[in-house]
Amino acid sequence: MSNKKILLEPIIKNNPITIQVLGICSALAVTSQLKPSIVMGISVTVIIMFSNIIVSMIRKWIPKNIRIIVEMTVIATMVILVDQFLRAFMFDVSKQLSVFVGLIITNCIVLGRLEGFALHNKVMPSLFDGLGNGFGYALILIIIGGMRELFGSGKLLGMQIIPQWLYDAGYVDNGLLMLAPGAFFLLGLLVWLQRSITKQYEEE
Amino acid sequence: MTLFTIFIGAAIINNYVLVQFLGICPFVGVSKKIESSLSMGMATTFVMTLAATVTWLIYHFILTPLNLQFLQIVSFILVIASLVQLVEMFIKKVSKPLYDTLGIFLPLITTNCAIMGVALFLVMKEYTFIESIVFGFSAGVGFTLAIVLMAGIREELELADVPEHFRGAPITMIVAGCLALAFMGFAGMI
């Protein structure tokens, strides 16, 4: 498979969230606003990419039966680095994301990519695979985060988007979108939309 | 805060699955039959209570004195992974019927972000030792409640005529949304 295909495949056609239904917890929890969604998307992309590279580099020396522990340690190291970075430079976003940065470690996408790809492939393809899956994940987060913030509070990145005259004319923000049920509905509809376009879904 | 408010808060008002979005993977994956989701819920509650106890001890007696709090993520995940392994071996030795019921679900629990979430939350909220144990247990009860409710609905859903592209994950999400809507009614109870 060419690097380009490895990079592009997971973004739409084999998206980790909408097609493989992995890592939904964070996709729902951090997306009440656009900014934390973007930060979370970037964090996960960085973590998948570097864990993929590291595991791919040491793949010939990892003993078969303790590979999960080794992979977990690699991911944990990356998560700690990202967590410390966010705390140092973007404290307010880090507060908003609360435990969910730490929880990237249990995100099935990361471990899934290491197990399924980095263990059997060279460094360059692993890099592109990590990047592609990270982008696929970030894309869904940004779509959900954007929609929830725009229709839930009329803002994007904290700036008022929906103009005042619309409110005067009787438009009301859909507060439900900011709450838990809205996130479930939105993701459900998004998965449905994706599947009816690509005609691809898990076998029952 | 009294222990009772912690219990109600973690089990119902801030339900782990439906309000905090933790542990959605097993929630979507396992909730097809009431029996198996009940076993899954029990196993999770058990491990959660243990994990809350052990991670509290580790955080307050090892990481804090050595000033190594930034290592909490890596130490917690290793503790949880080995804890699950130990519990599995222990149950297999002591009670075969219980092992047969919980058996296959135990390894799955390691990657359940709800367990890790409990560990991280109790550090963040600065609970005392007893409060942490109650918090871990009630989070597990909340998880069990949500997953069993969901399984009950999904058993009925089998008979419904769901559009082709809506089957599986999408319809589960919509149903979970409706459940979350119902759970919002508990907000403001304390």
Span between N and C termini of chain A?
28 Å
Strand content of chain B: under 5%
Secondary-structure-based class of chain A equals: mainly alpha
Count the beta strands of chain B. 0
* SSE arrangement of chain A, N to C: HHHHHHHEEHH
Which percent bin holds the helix content of chain A?
55-70%
Strand order of the largest sheet of chain A: 1-2
Given helix and strand content, the structural type of chain B is mainly alpha
Calculate Rg of chain A over CA atoms. Answer: 18 Å
Uncertain runs of chain B are: none
Query: Count the helices of chain A. How many?
Result: 9
- Percent of sequence in beta strands of chain A: under 5%
Number of domains of chain A: 1
Task: Tell me the major beta sheet of chain B.
Answer: none
Molecular structure report:
The complex is a heterodimer of chains A (204) and B (190). Chain A is an all-alpha fold and 204 residues long. In chain A, a hairpin with a 2-residue loop joins strand 1 (155-156) and strand 2. Chain A has one domain (3-203). Chain A is globular and about 65 Å long. Chain A has helices at 3-8, 24-29, 34-57, 67-89, 91-97, 108-116, 123-153, 164-168, 180-198; strands at residues 155-156, 159-160. In chain A, strands 1-2 form a two-stranded antiparallel sheet. The relative contact order of chain A is 0.19. Chain B has 190 residues and is mainly alpha-helical. Chain A binds chain B through residues 21-22, 24-26, 28-29, 68-69, 72-73, 76-77, 79-80, 83-84, 98-99, 102-103, 105-108, 111, 179-185, 187-189, 191-192, 195-196, 201-202, 204, and chain B through 18-25, 28, 70-74, 77-78, 81, 111-113, 116-117, 120-121, 124, 165-174, 176-178, 180-181, 183-184.
